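Sat 14:20. Reprocessing the chain from the morning session after the first attempt stalled halfway. Input below, unchanged.
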Amino acid sequence: MDVVYATGSVSGIYHLVVRNDQETLYGLRVSRLRSEQSLHLVDAISGGHIICKHCERIRKNQESDQG
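Finished this time. Tokens:
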């Protein structure tokens, strides 16, 4: 699965977004514009930030289904 990340401007939480899609793994919309209220795409995860628990659970379930 080819994944990119999304985060809000003030949030320390990252969400997993399937590439070429505009939603997180569990359906949150990702905005093309940066604002404090919306999620936007980022290239990488920086230190001190964590993956959303819902995205992490879905990713683990998908990996176990494939393996």
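Strands lie at 3-7, 13-18, 30-31, 39-42, 50-51.
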